[in-house]
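Problem 3 from the worked examples.
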Amino acid sequence: MKVLLILTGGTISMVRDAETGALHPADMQTFKAFVPELFAGDIHVEMVPFEPLLDSSDLNPDSWIQMAQMVYNHYDQYDGFVILHGTDTMSYSASALSFIFEGLSKPVVFTGSQLPVGVLRSDAKENLLTAIEIAAAYDANGPIVPEVCLYMDGELYRGNRTTKRNAEHFSAFKSYNYPALAKAGVHISYNRQFIEPYRGEVLPLGLMKKFETRVAILKLFPGITEEVVAAILDIPNLKGVVLETFGAGNAPTHEWLYRRLRNAVDRGVVIVNKTQCHTGSVAMGHYAVSMNLLKAGVISGYDITTEALLTKMMHLLGEIPNDVKKVKELLSTSLCGELTIE
């Protein structure tokens, strides 16, 4: 089996300078020297880096396209792909790639670490080696996990279901509304009923690379003023808004909030209701305090993560720039397992 390791940067690729103690990106040879096991097993691993390596805070839609293009360029030569990535925005990148790929039928596994590869107690080796094994995991039917996923600290998740929850512990990520695809201990135990099944390479891999970045996140809070809401909704040429609401999709019943939302929707701004709760789903109309959102033309995001909703919105608005109705329809549809509609 052959796996391509795409190195974008992040903590996992850092080493400590012996003189200053400062962390800096490792060159390819130094990185390989810290993980000799990577090249000594039955899985043939090759590496290709971003040049230069980037902290994940600096990654953007162009970076997502670059990652996807690297997979695309080498798709026929490898059985699976692992993307080393900083943890801070990994959920955004994993979500974005799930929407970029069309006809994906091989594993694309994101992983990283909370401590640099050169640190004694680093979690980098375990995360990397297990991600490689998952990317190369095939059975008689084909690849076991033929989708974009994320592996950290013993658990494999669907990439567009993840959120970074912890900056301190090795268990940095969680999939709150969808079960883990696999758990790694002595053996890797796959929860196949939750994994997108392999259906063969029906279509050649395609890339949908257009993203609309004129979007925003508006998080409601008790005491929010009309001026704050207007500052977001009145941004010139705004195309979409992730509206982070309370509980099951609830919001203050102020007349001015309804009016501001209605005016934005009437101008063609796509507004999607996303609960601030990690677990659970938006259910507009269940409580009276969400009725104004329905009347204003806000649509439900169901149980999608903020990371997946934002990247999906950017993707759809980029690919279908002149059809707001179609964008809204697809935002309320599960395209690649990113949301559950009850």
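Problem 4, a separate protein:
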Amino acid sequence: MPFHQYSPQQALEVLMKKLWNRNESLATQIQTAIDVGKDVSETEPPTDRRKNARAYRKAVPLSHEEALQIALNALQAYYVEQPLFASSAADNISKAAIGKPLQKEFTWQKDYKESEPISLDEEGAEKEIEIELQTETQISKTEEETLPLKRMPKEVIDEQQAHIIYLRKLINFMEE
């Protein structure tokens, strides 16, 4: 018997309730991932009308334990993996220099055989990073067109990782 005094269903309800109160957007995304369910393959034996067995896939609901795992994986991606990605991208992009033309000329005013003199600025400086959510070819409009990526301190990421590990221990319903 697990040492918990609560069921996986109760744990999922408490987790989702806290998420809805703190971050509705994230809670909506996690609930959508849970509601999708999982794909399973099924086979029907041959019948009088068919000679061969019929194999197909269908979506079935997740168990409460599986839904908890989906929720925790999403929380880890949101609070740990994305900030690590953003910090890594910021480190890599800060090393790059930005080339700026030295002269303010239009391209039609100069001979194309000459290369344009440029200065390399901002090498090693922190640069803004944005992910394009609304693409140029997308017909339907979204609320946000871009998502800015901001660096998060390593201590905060480590703290979030510790919280996720603790949550995983709390929802371990295997025999102990």
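Solution to problem 4. Residues 1-35+60-90+149-176 form one domain. The longest helix spans residues 64-94.
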